[in-house]
Amino acid sequence: METPGSTLPSVTPSWNTFPQQILEAVDIVVLVLYFVFVLAVGLWSMWRTKRSTVKGYFLAGGKMVWWPVGASLFASNVGSGHFIGLAGSGAASGIAATAYEWNGMFCVLVLAWLFLPIYIAAGVTTMPEYLQKRFGGKRIQIFLAILYLFIYIFTKISVDMYAGALFIQQALRWDLYVAVIGLLAITAIYTVAGGLAAVIYTDTLQTVIMLAGGLTLMGFSFVKIGGLESLQAKYFKAIASSRKGNSSCGLPREDAFHIFRDPVTSDLPWPGVLIGMTIPSLWYWCTDQVIVQRSLAATNLCHAKGGSLLASYLKILPLFMMVMPGMISRVLFPDLVACADPEICRKICGNPSGCSDIAYPKLVIELLPLGLRGLMMSVMISALMSSLTSIFNSSSTIFTMDLWRHFRPRSSEWELMLVGRVFVLLLVVVSILWIPLVQASQGGQLFIYIQTISSYLQPPVAMVFILGCFWKRTNEQGAFWGLLTGMLLGFIRLVLDFIYLQPQCGEPDRRPAVVRYVHYLYFSMILSVITTVTVVVVSLLTEPPSEEMISHLTWFTRWDRPAKKHPEDSTSPDSGSGVCKSECPPAQLDISVVSENISNDNTSVTGTQKGSKLMRVFLWLCGMESKQEHPPENTAATSPEHAVASLDEQPLVKHILNINLILCICAGIFLWGYFA
């Protein structure tokens, strides 16, 4: 029956969903200009930044001001999966998915005001490293490092790749896998050559492009449909003509314009939205390496807070910039976006689960004039590249600093930087293999797929971090067994969800009760409670943590005097640098010290390559060239200053930030109340 897609039937659509709409010369010029601008910013940041040290590559030297930090936080969060997925969820079920975005408004502020001062006082650069300092031992650090990489592959890299490639496939008629491999090749080269500083600066440019393009398409969409009131009236009539009359399949939800929905029968029950959704959100915004690494790169705590405020204000936009345009797409193209019959959906978009994910690409191709289509292609590529470069950089940081460094504690800086770059390429290959599973899962709604997986894997980690940061009695045994118990239960539910897929509309639901009746947001709440109880009980039944495991490592001890530190640390060159670098166990990597101690080795290795100009160019592109003009003594004298940000805040700036904090929270509460 469906012969046109015989080679990849689940990928290649056989309907002419985007008739005769390919990029014209003007659009291609806009795309080329976009790549030129990004390349120019990337090269400028490469010249400007010291990439030849581990600290320079992974921490951007700790010299970022508030506006690149805020823009990078937003760009790292809003990938192509947001544009495709949020618009798809809006087309399928209304505005409820906005709750994830507006939840993030508050959580990114919690990061800057509550969690970041602890991380800065602890002097850490990765999140597994914080738990290693806080609890001691290595098992939690290694377990968490592996888990973070697993989550990145499952929920972030694969979904963003698929979403970006889906968009390009619809616009350029390229094969999905060719598009994915092409995008990944560009992104991997860009990440390997750059480092965190290049990623943050290009994120800033890409944030501007995303906002310009997204707001432009929003304007065209609302003009086309006649405004918000017209959308509210027409959305409920947006039904595919092929829908079977005797079923509810394909009908818009009656509560489509409400964020708070029925606690038992709805797709996003309101208790789960308030509590179950907040816990994975706290994990993402307050303990995820991708996000925290950007905040730690800030010059000081004030700049980190300013960046979080900027990101929080920008998080207001997704409802109007992504979700509602997806709903408008359903109104304008109901037979395609709102298809309910699996056979027809397979012919339209190649996915029998539903075609809501084509809502955003369809708007771009059909509504925008020449030139602006190229701009929106730039927006989607910006979203994809900004999120992928952020994830690749943070993944290589975790792998290099927490795993490779553990197995090879005396590895040179040259080796560490080489391993970090090779690991990016490995991630690329593994990620491609996940695309078919992503496409087949969760009713064609990408965004819901991400949140489902998040609710199974992230709550135990979030609760361990919260208890470790704010309850001094938490110890290593409690944290480990709480983490292990919660993760085991989460993995069981995750496996059950993959084995027992959600039935198509109209089919009987034969899934086990724990899958059918326990919503993933409620399961998130259950996991959090079980993890918390386990951590508290085991911690109280075992020995309390030593003073070294608490000083500078919790909210209540972040101002402790730096005199309380390991005797081994007395030789550290940063003895006068205050709270930022007080407690580094001898087995733990100190980035600045490693950079200094191994600089001679790096110089000697690169010195042997002088004869080859090609090799020197290659080393420069990778940021691994020799810095012979800077003697090691100077490096040792200056690098500790910027190892991590400072806790000190100027009184006037602090008051301005706190006033903005109150305004931002009030704006968030108003939006929740208005649309609830």
Shape descriptor reads globular
> What's the overall average pLDDT, rounded?
78
Residue runs with pLDDT of under 50 for 5 or more positions: 1-14, 563-611, 626-644
Q: Return Rg in Å.
A: 25 Å
Helix proportion range: 55-70%
Largest sheet: none
What would you call the structural class?
A: mainly alpha
Number of continuous helical runs: 31
- How would you name the oligomeric state of the polypeptide chains in this document? single chain
Our measurement of the CA-to-CA distance between the termini, rounded to an integer number of angstroms, reads 45 Å
The number of E-state strands comes to: 0
Strand content: under 5%
Q: What does this entry look like structurally?
A:
The chain is an all-alpha fold and 676 residues long. Helices cover 66% and strands 0% of the residues. The protein has 31 helices and no strands. The chain has helices spanning 25-48, 54-59, 66-77, 80-93, 98-122, 127-135, 139-172, 176-194, 196-225, 228-234, 270-276, 278-287, 289-296, 301-314, 318-332, 334-337, 342-349, 359-367, 372-407, 413-432, 435-440, 446-457, 459-470, 476-499, 513-516, 520-541, 591-597, 599-607, 613-621, 632-638, 651-675.
Which key phrases capture this entry?
globular, mainly alpha, 676 residues, disordered N terminus
